[in-house]
Amino acid sequence: MAMGVVGGLVGVLGRTLRKRQSLTVLLLLLFSLSLIRNARHEMRIETRVEEEEEESEEDYITPEEVLQVLRLLDSAVSNVEAQCGRMVTLGGRITCSCEKKLCGVDGAKMVCLDPDVMPPPRHCHALNFGIGYEFSFDEALVNYGCRVFAFDPTNSNITNKVYQANYTQGLAAPKPRRDSRAPSPLRRTFHALNLGLGPKDHTLFLNLTEDGRYYRGNIATFLTYRSVLRILDNPRVDIIKIDIEGVEWQVLQELLSAPDAAEALQHVRQILMEVHFDFLKPDMNAEKLLKAAWRALRVLQRLRELGFHLAAFDLNNTAQKYMAFGPLRLALFREVTLIRRSPAGVLG
């Protein structure tokens, strides 16, 4: 249609040029072309606005969608699916909160002693990530008969030390044996290394100042779970305990997204973990909140796909915080025990 208008105007121009009225017709032609160009521009703008409106409608996240994912996340760490006949609490120390006027046990972990998820003494190997200065859980595992490899980047005094556990003295450096011909005692050893667990192999400078007065820093090395297995010469691992202040989601996401995730965890029967949801902030917009909650939920779902089911959980009431979202009040910290039954029935 536009080309027809232009053609007609050109014809008029040819006739009027002969009548010496070219200036008027030329102005008319330029004005018509300007109208056509503006009309096309307006059509492009309207099309773009309609497309953006359609995209915004598709990307809009409702509060109901966020609430649904948060409820699924809460359910994943509070609905017990696996029954344990002999669940015990190992380690821990009493801590009190003056603000809340509450006392509780910190550092304790729930361990299932059923024979299909807990090897017998002297056949048990455990990895403990995140110990700080609290060794009671390690003592309990070692006294049971496990060999424990513990990792923590914040305590430089434990680097590459090997301790011998004693039922009365706790963890102490092993004494040299005078008679090498004497029979070897029951090995209840605890290996402590100044290393951290991370989503990648890297070093990081940690500011460990606590009271704001005395500065204390530490250059820490972090390794992935697979790198830890390599430096330990790929031991059989039965129990993994993780308490790394929120980094567990990045570590597990890196571990579980790899094709060899099942192989890396093939012998693991229990995962004891303190889960942190404090990355969920009430002031986050709906999209960010949904993505953050979904990432954590996907990690828990992937563990479930590999056979790990919730056997126990406990809220740390002395240091507990909550996030309210609509009718949901989500606890941001809790201890969980995930177990995976052995097909053979009994571990040995």
Automatic annotation (TrEMBL):
The source's domain of life comes to: Eukaryota
InterPro entries with a match to the protein in the record = FkbM_mtfrase, METTL24, SAM-dependent_MTases_sf
Tell me which residues make up the Methyltransferase FkbM domain. Answer: 135-309
Q: Which Pfam families match?
A: Methyltransf_21
Q: Where are the transmembrane segments?
A: none
Give the protein name, as stated in the record. Methyltransferase FkbM domain-containing protein
